[in-house]
Amino acid sequence: MGAPDAGKIADELQFVVGALVRRQRAVSPPHDVTLSQVSILKRLEREGPHTVADLARLDKITHQSVTVSASKLVDRGLVRREPDAGDGRRKLLVITAAGQSLLADRRDAGHELLTEAIAARFSPAEQTRIKESLTLLRRLID
């Protein structure tokens, strides 16, 4: 048996992840935020304050894209800018209570349906395999 075809794996992974994202988006309450903005909010919630430059580097997107998304989040009160205590020239982006609430609403709406689908469609052994696969998949984004 030869080595797996990485290209075919990538195609299938893109298809499955895309379908899951579309399904989650369909059940998420409308908040009029883009996926880029949600990504920023999630990172700030998970990792704490970051500069625009940090976010651009970590998400491998342009500084300008993060600046535009962050400005919209600040305008909506979902993120605030604070001076960096270690370097007063830098501004940190910090998620606000409103930003955390928006993420919680999105999570609650999609999480329950996804949890139910996993429980109904996969055996305990399959659920364990999925959990183990997530560790490997995280390496694609680190």
Outline:
This protein has 142 residues and is mainly α. It is 68% helix and 11% strand. It has a two-stranded antiparallel sheet.
The assigned structural class equals: mainly alpha
Mean pLDDT across every amino acid position:
90
Strand content: 5-15%
Q: Which range best describes the helical content: under 10%, 10-25%, 25-40%, 40-55%, 55-70% or over 70%?
A: 55-70%
Largest sheet: 2 strands, antiparallel
C-alpha-based Rg, rounded: 18 Å
Total DSSP E strands = 2
Number of helices: 6
Shape: globular
Question: How would you characterize the overall build of this protein?
Answer:
With 142 residues, the protein is mainly alpha-helical. It contains six helices and two strands. The chain has helices at residues 6-27, 35-47, 52-59, 63-75, 97-121, 124-138; strands at 79-84, 87-95. A two-stranded antiparallel ribbon has the order 1-2. A hairpin with a 2-residue loop joins strand 1 and strand 2 (87-95). Helix 3 packs across helix 4. The longest helix has 25 residues, at 97-121. The two termini are 30 Å apart. The mean pLDDT is 90.
